[in-house]
Amino acid sequence: MKQIKIIMISILFLGSTLEAQNKWSAEFRPGINFPAEDFKGSNIETGFGFEVTVGYRFMEHLHTYLGWGNNTFSIEDSNMDFEENGYTFGLQFIHPLWISEDLSYLFRLGAIYNHLKLEDVNGELIDDSGHGLGWQIETGLDYVIGSNWSLRPSLRYRSLSRDIDVIQNQTISMDLNYLSFGLGVSKSF
C-alpha cells in the first residue's frame, strides 16, 4: 500500500512537472525602425534598437510578456539624435500553422512605458521627456529551430507621444510613430 502511494505521488509530481515545462521564455530582438512621420519639419532617419523580454504562457496559446528596449534615431540636417527607451508589456498569442508544427504565427498587443532623450552629436543630454504610456501591435512568425529555441521575425507598429524642451524652455510635442522589423531569438524553458 505504501508503494502504491509513492508511485501515485510520483506520477502526479512528474505529470505536473512535465506540464509546467516550457511555460517561460526569454527573447532578444534586435530591429531596424522606419519612422512613419517627420519631426517638426526635419526628417527622422532610420533607427536601430533592441529589446529583451521575458514571457509566461498561462494558457495553451496565450502568453504575457514584459521587457525593456532601447531605440536610437538621428535627425537629418541636425546636430541632434534622440533615443527612446523603457519598458514594454502585454499579451502575445502564438498558434501553430497547419504547414508544420515547428512554424507558428505570432500576434502581440501591448503597451510601452518609455521616455525620449534628445541628445547632441557629442551625446550630451538636451532634454529627457520623462516616462509616459504608448502602445504597440506586432505580428510575425515563430519558427522552432530545436531544443526549445525559436527564431521570431516580426513587424511591429509602435506609437509614443511625449513633450520635450528643445531650446530656452520651448516645449514641443513629439509623436514618435514607427514600423520596426526585427528578428528575435527566443528560448523557452
Keywords:
1 helix, 189 residues, mainly beta, 9 strands, 66% strand, Porin
Question: Summary?
Answer:
It is built from 1 helix and 9 strands, in the order H-E-E-E-E-E-E-E-E-E. It is mainly beta.
List the helices and strands and how they pair.
Layout: H1 2-20, E1 24-35, E2 47-57, E3 62-74, E4 80-96, E5 103-120, E6 125-128, E7 132-146, E8 149-165, E9 171-188
Antiparallel strand pairs: 1-2, 1-9, 2-3, 3-4, 4-5, 5-6, 5-7, 7-8, 8-9
Describe this structure in words.
With 189 residues, the chain is mainly beta. The protein has a single domain (23-188), classed as Porin, CATH 2.40.160.20. It has one helix and nine strands, in the order H-E-E-E-E-E-E-E-E-E. The protein has one helix at residues 2-20; strands at residues 24-35, 47-57, 62-74, 80-96, 103-120, 125-128, 132-146, 149-165, 171-188. This is Outer membrane beta-barrel protein.
Read across the widest sheet, the strand sequence of neighbours is 1-2-3-4-5-7-8-9
Q: What's the pLDDT, averaged over the residues?
A: 87
Sheet having the most strands:
8 strands, antiparallel, barrel
How many independent structural domains?
Answer: 1
Rg result: 21 Å
Name the overall outline.
elongated
Describe the oligomeric state of these chains in a short phrase.
single chain
Q: Which architecture name does CATH use?
A: Beta Barrel
Number of strands: 9
Return the CATH class: Mainly Beta
